[in-house]
Amino acid sequence: MPDITLQPMSVMADGGSHEGRLVLADADLVAVFARVTAEETAGGESQVGGWFLEAGFGPCGSLMSVTPPVFATLDEAVEWVRTTLATGLSSP
Amino acid sequence: MSNPLILKLERRDRLSADEKQVLEGAISRVRTVAADEDIVREGDRPTESSLLLDGFAARYKIFSNGRRQITAVHVPGDFVDLHSFLIKTMDHGVLALTPCRIAAVPHANLDKITDEHPHLTRLLWLNTLIDGAIHREWLTVMGRLSATAHMAHFICELFLRLQIVGRTDGDTIQIPLTQAELGDTLGLSTVHVNRVLQELRKGGLIRWQGDALTILDWERLKAVGEFTPTYLNLQHEHR
């Protein structure tokens, strides 16, 4: 199982600068999450702010997985990355 | 108020008084469907087709992971499953997005129309051809435009389709879709739906308050969405 590490990184998204995290699996960049406000997820199922997958790479990329919902916590976001890496890499 | 299907067809061709009467007479009953209920289900074999008189409906498919794609949004005047007359088994469902008033047209009555009224038959054929043209346009837009352009295109189309059936108020239309439903329609996350709407608002192209959407700059909205209404077939001519 790869070692997942998070690096703080500001992300430019619509509406300006967002607090963000680079997610690395060992030495590889696999995802970029940005913190979105409740207002940005208005109309969503959760109606609260959280961590949005701005970009994903490899198994976390849009070619191989659907955009997940906004995650309430970073732990949930990392859990999604782990599951996606595990299922994505094992599939043919 | 006139039957919105007649308004829709009259925009494209002249209907005789007799033809209008035949269309009105083909309706066996009017029913209401609550929001979020199915009008027709995938796998159904309807014996009648549903004509939307009031409300918004959507054609949709659901994937095994529970994700939904809305493949068409229907407005009053749309014959949401006219095609069930001939394709028999529904390969997708049609859902009421808002409370809907539906006129049921038995397939037996459609049989009679196709037997006895060739011009009306061609106009009903045209109706499904326009549905097909809209699907083609959506496919193209979904594959090749930015999310902002896609949203602008959707708004332009919906505005014109509502205008034809007299459901606009100046530059304002009611769009009672949630951002989640818009996301399912445009293939976007809720976050992206929110962002593109913000961008269109900030650019002074639209105003969206509650369910009311006002187009502030039609020309620029059209330009952003690369919207050309040819596919809506709005010319009035003999068909």
Essential attributes:
heterodimer; A: 92 residues; alpha+beta; 4-stranded antiparallel beta sheet; two-stranded antiparallel sheet; 1 helix; 6 strands; 36% strand; B: 239 residues; 3-stranded antiparallel beta sheet; 9 helices
Question: What does the model show?
Answer:
The complex is a heterodimer of chains A (92) and B (239). Chain A has 92 residues and is an alpha+beta fold. Chain A contains one helix and six strands. In chain A, 18% of the residues lie in helices and 36% in strands. Chain A has a four-stranded antiparallel beta sheet with strand order 1-4-5-6, covered by helices on one side. In chain A, a hairpin with a 2-residue loop joins strand 4 and strand 5. Chain A is globular, with a radius of gyration of 13 Å. Chain B contains nine helices and ten strands. Chain B has a four-stranded antiparallel beta sheet. A three-stranded antiparallel beta sheet of chain B has the order 1-7-3. Chain B is globular. The mean pLDDT of chain B is 94.
Structural class of the helices, strands and pairings of chain A? Answer: alpha+beta
The number of helical segments of chain B is: 9
Uncertain residue segments of chain A: none
User: What string gives the helices and strands of chain A in order?
Assistant: EEEEEEH
Total beta strand runs of chain B: 10
Average pLDDT of chain B, rounded to a whole number, is 94
What is the makeup of the main sheet of chain A? 4 strands, antiparallel
Question: How would you describe the oligomerization state of the chains in this entry?
Answer: heterodimer
Low-confidence stretches of chain B: none
Supply the helix-strand structural class of chain B.
alpha+beta
Number of helices of chain A: 1
The strand order across the widest sheet of chain B is 2-6-4-5
Quick structural overview:
The complex is a heterodimer of chains A (92) and B (239). Chain A has 92 residues and is α+β, with helices and mostly antiparallel strands. Chain A has one helix and six strands.
